[in-house]
Amino acid sequence: MLNGIISAVTEKLTEKGASPVYSAFDAVPADRKNSGIYTIVGVRSFESTTPIYSLTKIYLPFRAELDIKVTAPENYSAERLYEFFSDKIYPAAAELSGLESFLKGISLKFDSNISRLVLTAVISASGTTKIERSSLQ
What we know:
Blueprint: H1 2-15, E1 21-23, E2 38-48, E3 52-53, E4 57-73, H2 78-94, E5 99-111, E6 116-132
Parallel strand pairs: 1-2
Antiparallel strand pairs: 2-4, 3-4, 4-6, 5-6
Helix pairs in contact: 1-2
């Protein structure tokens, strides 16, 4: 389920022009990723609630906090990074299909481990996953 959420967010970000976009769970080292701006999508927290059963489906409501990190070379200005966020990331987050989502917070800092400027947006999202009962057997 987590990979499905990350894939959906990655697809929407790519569609809005935020390429390249990586999953936080990939094994690609930071120094082998794009040298310009790139985006990393991860899940900060996840909570599912009681499933709802029907004859043919199981509905699983959930809430998640998504981390969307936009990284840029250290010589990028904060203004350019916020502009990239406003033009590419925020519109994608607002249009996540099947999810109710809102921007919970945003921060900007320099990450000395990778020598890059990192803008982190926390998106709160909720939705329901449908599972066919026949696929569980």
